[in-house]
Amino acid sequence: MPAVPHDEWLRRAKAFQLSGAHHIDGAEEAGGGAVFPVVSPRDGRVVADVADGGAAEVDAAVAAARRAFDTGPWPRLAPAERGRALLRLADLLEERREELALTVSLEMGKPISDAYGIELRAAITTFRWYGQLADKLTDESPHTAPDALALVTREPAGVVGAVVPWNFPLTLAGWKVAPALAAGCTVVLKPSENSPLSALLLARLATESGIPPGVLNVVTGDGPTAGRALGLHPDVDVLAFTGSTAVGRHFLRYAADSNLKRVWLELGGKSPNIVLPDAPDLDRAAATAAWGIFFNQGEMCTAPSRLLVHSSIAERVTEAVVRRARELRVGDPLDPETEMGALVGRTHLDRVRDHIRHGVDEGARLRTGGDRVLAETGGTYLAPTVFDRVDPGSRLAREEIFGPVLSVLAFDDLDEAVRLANATEYGLAAGLWTSDLSTAHRVSRALKAGTVWVNCYEEGDLTVPFGGMKQSGNGRDKSAHALEKYTELKTTWIQL
């Protein structure tokens, strides 16, 4: 984190200006002229007016991406050359890191220390990693009879539509854009209407880095209009989406109603975090549980929102989490000392508070939090919230809240813990705390989740895949496996 004080971030925020035009075919495009305001959750003020795109703008962006794919140089470059372009983009992101961090913090309420130190680090690392990977992939030549030669090659899939949410606007865009570009595809990116500014800046830096026009386009607008148009577009070959399960279903329908494009979904979660009595360090387990649910204001698909604790240690662990929740510094995202910023907007704040009210009505015990705070700022802040005595069948235990709200459930034996953990339609992530190696292996295999963290949470790097099971989606972001989403397998059989 750079040594930039709070008052300097405030000065930069006051002077902040960024064009809200779409980025199509390497240039700014105003579109039809309609705009919508981007409201900062830190104080309720309008940060910028952004172009409100629809079918016409999506058509233009897809046409640019199609030209760039069908006749442009990008898919025909040597993989090493594509990799060097991605590395140049990563370098530009590093150079403009403070500006990008400020943009993310203003548009979605993330603490500036997290925006700079975590969000931008992840985005830069992603583009750099895929840039380095681009020329290290190999095709196959299976063994055949002596009179034939078989080749299995991976070819870029074509035009990729990428729709990403607001909670990690640059990281999640990078997880889709970087491997798609490395594979030789072209991209139309539709960011959330809550966080479009960082995506627009990313696209402009991509053009500045030398990535050809039409290879990365950004259309801003809402989901029911711009998102739908992208999902239905017959010239989009692959659609990659991160967001809610409900919207994921829409994209599957759009594919069925158009050209049967492949749709890759990374959806919601209600992740369990299981703490056993033999955890190597109960204090660390509790501190990690608190960090996991309150990090990024709880606006995380992988957030460990269900803390499953053995009844013999439930009160000790819960009390430690409650203490940490009460100590957490909630405040202005532009203050480097802030630990938890603002929820993304008023609509989302109201939705999270509705879940809290239902939790109380359902009989769960509210241990701390539950109230809006700092309302006088005009921002959308919520106190870190912890419930215990949560009914496993209640909304608190079953529905994704996407906010800083933790549900604590006690169990008496390991079989019960696994049943509770799997008693959800989601299967994105899970945590387990134990000192027993056999228990770690057995429970990890029994948990229906795409990622299981043992004696940690939210750890990993670009070498490992990320994605879910059940209604948490399909396909994988990160790692070399992500390239599978953006390539087609071709078999060539040569009779000698």
TrEMBL record:
GO MF term set: oxidoreductase activity, acting on the aldehyde or oxo group of donors, NAD or NADP as acceptor
The keyword Oxidoreductase is assigned to this record: yes
Active site: 266
PROSITE patterns registered for this protein in UniProt: ALDEHYDE_DEHYDR_CYS (PS00070), ALDEHYDE_DEHYDR_GLU (PS00687)
Keyword Oxidoreductase listed: yes
InterPro entries for the chain: Ald_DH/histidinol_DH (IPR016161), Ald_DH_C (IPR016163), Ald_DH_CS_CYS (IPR016160), Ald_DH_CS_GLU (IPR029510), Ald_DH_N (IPR016162), Aldehyde_DH_dom (IPR015590)
Alphabetical UniProt keywords: Oxidoreductase
Highest taxon of the lineage: Bacteria
Record Pfam families: Aldedh (PF00171)
Annotated Aldehyde dehydrogenase domain residues: 35-491
Coiled coil (UniProt feature): none
Family: Belongs to the aldehyde dehydrogenase family.
Official protein name in the record: Aldehyde dehydrogenase
Species annotation: Streptomyces qaidamensis
